[in-house]
Design a protein that fits this description.
Blueprint: H1 6-13, H2 15-18, H3 25-35, E1 44-48, E2 53-57, H4 66-83, E3 89-94, H5 101-106, H6 114-130, E4 136-143, E5 149-158, E6 161-163, E7 168-170, H7 177-197, H8 207-218, E8 224-229, H9 232-243, E9 254-256, E10 265-267
Antiparallel strand pairs: 1-2, 3-5, 3-8, 4-5, 6-7, 9-10
Helix pairs in contact: 1-3, 4-9, 6-7, 7-8
Length: 273
Amino acid sequence: MLSKQPLRQILTNSRELWDHPVIRKSARENFNRVTICRTAALGAEVFASEIEERVVFHTCKSRACPSCGHRATILWQREQWASLPDVPYQGIVLTMPKELWPIFQNNRHLLHDLPALGAGVIQQWVKVKYGVRVLLMVVPHTFGRHLTFNAHLHILVSAGGLKESEGRWVKQLHFNKSSLMHMWRFAVITYLRAALQARSLKMDMSPLALRSLLVTQYERWWNIDIDHFKSKAQFLRYAGRYVRRPPIARVVLSVSPIKRSPFGRRTCDKSAK
């Protein structure tokens, strides 16, 4: 018989593998919250009448929880869909060589600056090329399809931009992959060199070896992808899986559409209601 809470069962049975100081504190805290979601450990509300009583246990509200994370995903998608204007969009993926991943994995405070770094690169490029400002939404990723660490950015960019000096909207911007790659590569390497100079990096290699690594990676090609999206909803459906949900989640069993946005009110099972 299949468990209604498979992730909870997996985490409970494998606690000795993740509940120790080697694992990041934030990960251990979220995993533990998943194991006690909708149990007496988090408290409950009691609803009673003269003939019946029902106890409703509190939820954990963790992104790592399939039930709580799924609800947070739907709410986030609806909010973003309502706030984004109905204009054409493009998707830009900014990656970096795998040789640089360990630097960000061992120095996770650097990850907080990556979204602003990527957004700044695109805004600077369109300003120089077209003299406009574009609408951006950056979704940082720290894992790939095999769930291994992989730092990169998925960015939703308006296909047009506002020319503030003339107060008009410029349509059909054409993004140049090569130019963006060179600016993104320069921004990341310069940022890492500044962090090394400030002695804020924790690495197994020596400063000299790290400087040599940065020189080598600066001289190679970095992959940049530019995609066209049919709608903002298409990007939000994709991005929501990473922004508000864990990389391992339960299958959605049913979908019932709503009128105000393209995102359905979805439920996994009775325990997720």
